[in-house]
């Protein structure tokens, strides 16, 4: 029997509709509910799919598109900086300048003065080819496992720039992990993601570098404890270095879930590291995604 591809096609159409909606409303305020109505996904599911497919949070992508349009206007029109700022929904030239410099590393005035003209965020467009096949770095099919509730203690990061902050978080944690009592296994560690609802406006989420413990008593200063509830997980294997981890997440959310009988719950996903993780080409780590059957 031929495989049903309707989920793939619906996924492409839905995400492209969200992208088009963002593009059409760059100068006005939009809400997550507006985008959910375009995609027919829940808020958490939409944000995760968008992030792991496009490579940015919805908020980061929208900010990048607004500033890229602004950069084009700086280079190709005689509009004043204030006119551009107001046209794209900024409330002042000062707020626009701060946002522009954070993305382009120069002020709008200097960008125009130097005759620069480049785009940091192109408008995305998904096609069927984006959802076909797989890339290196993952195994084709995950294992479906049931895991009881467990406790962890570790260091927590909360923000929207994990690429630049999580490596330092792990270094800090490895220097201090011996302070933790009641550790179940010193050879195993957990990178817990999204233990709370993600912040749409800033694209923020939490990440805890941690170890499993038998008790949450005597948590070291500056660390946090968390209880991860019982759940059924799809467990994906990432093979190789961490610099290809993005490809594995693109496969998980951009391909596997589109043709699976399961959907992600949206919270308490984690990366599991043991002695098989070396950081080199022969390295393995495991991504646990809480799941439920599709309705």
From TrEMBL:
One of its GO terms (molecular function) is DNA-binding transcription factor activity. PANTHER family: RIGHT ORIGIN-BINDING PROTEIN. InterPro entries: AraC_E-bd, GyrI-like, Homeodomain-like_sf, HTH_AraC, MarA-like, Reg_factor_effector_dom_sf, Tscrpt_reg_AraC-type_HTH. Coiled coil: none annotated. It comes from Mesotoga infera. This is AraC family transcriptional regulator. The lineage of its organism: Bacteria, Thermotogati, Thermotogota, Thermotogae, Kosmotogales. The keyword Glycoprotein does not apply. SUPFAM superfamilies: Homeodomain-like, Probable bacterial effector-binding domain. Residues 16-114 form the HTH araC/xylS-type domain.
């Amino acid at each position: 029997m031929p495989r049903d591809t309707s989920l793939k096609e619906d996924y492409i159409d839905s995400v492209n509709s969200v992208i088009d909606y963002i593009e059409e409303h760059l100068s006005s305020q939009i809400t997550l509910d507006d985008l959910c109505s375009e995609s027919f996904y829940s808020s958490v599911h939409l944000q995760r799919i968008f992030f792991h497919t496009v490579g940015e949070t919805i908020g980061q992508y929208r900010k990048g598109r607004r500033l890229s349009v602004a950069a084009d206007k700086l280079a190709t029109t005689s509009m004043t900086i204030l006119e551009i700022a107001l046209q794209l929904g900024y409330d002042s030239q000062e707020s626009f300048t701060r946002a522009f410099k954070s993305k382009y590393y120069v002020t709008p005035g200097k960008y125009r003065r130097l005759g620069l003209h480049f785009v940091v965020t192109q408008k995305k467009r998904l096609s069927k080819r984006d959802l076909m096949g797989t890339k290196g770095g993952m195994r084709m099919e995950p294992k479906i496992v049931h895991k009881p509730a467990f406790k962890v203690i570790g260091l927590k990061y909360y923000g929207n720039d994990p690429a630049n902050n999580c490596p330092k978080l792990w270094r800090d944690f490895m220097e201090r992990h011996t302070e933790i009592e009641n550790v179940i296994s010193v050879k195993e560690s957990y990178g817990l993601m999204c233990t709370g609802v993600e912040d749409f406006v800033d694209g923020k989420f939490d990440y805890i570098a941690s170890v499993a413990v038998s008790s949450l008593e005597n948590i070291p200063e500056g660390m946090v404890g968390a209880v991860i509830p019982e759940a059924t997980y799809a467990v994906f294997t990432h093979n190789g270095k961490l610099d290809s981890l993005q490809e594995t997440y693109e496969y998980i959310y951009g391909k596997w879930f589109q043709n699976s009988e399961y959907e992600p719950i949206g919270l308490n996903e984690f990366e599991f590291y043991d002695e098989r993780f070396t950081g080199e080409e022969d390295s393995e780590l495991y991504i646990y995604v809480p799941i439920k059957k599709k309705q």
